[in-house]
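TASK: fixed-backbone design
INPUT:
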């Protein structure tokens, strides 16, 4: 199984041929790809999305739970 850089899609074999210290950047092939990925995280380009069960997306998730405040 060959390893591919998640940013530039180079194979690890190609990265080993380059005169850089690839083990410092794994799973990336270079410092450049590592910094590109970090920038994507800092810009919030990577997101975990979920579907709302409610028809109203502004409604808080616990809006259907009865309140404990009984006055």
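OUTPUT:
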């Amino acid at each position: 199984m060959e390893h591919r850089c998640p940013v530039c899609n180079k194979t690890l074999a190609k990265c080993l041929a380059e005169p850089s210290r690839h083990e410092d950047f794994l799973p990336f092939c270079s410092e450049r790809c590592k910094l590109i990925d970090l920038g994507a995280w800092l810009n919030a380009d990577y997101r975990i999305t979920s579907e709302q069960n409610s028809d109203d997306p502004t409604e808080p998730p616990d809006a259907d739970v009865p309140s404990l405040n009984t006055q």
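COMMENT: The radius of gyration is 22 Å.
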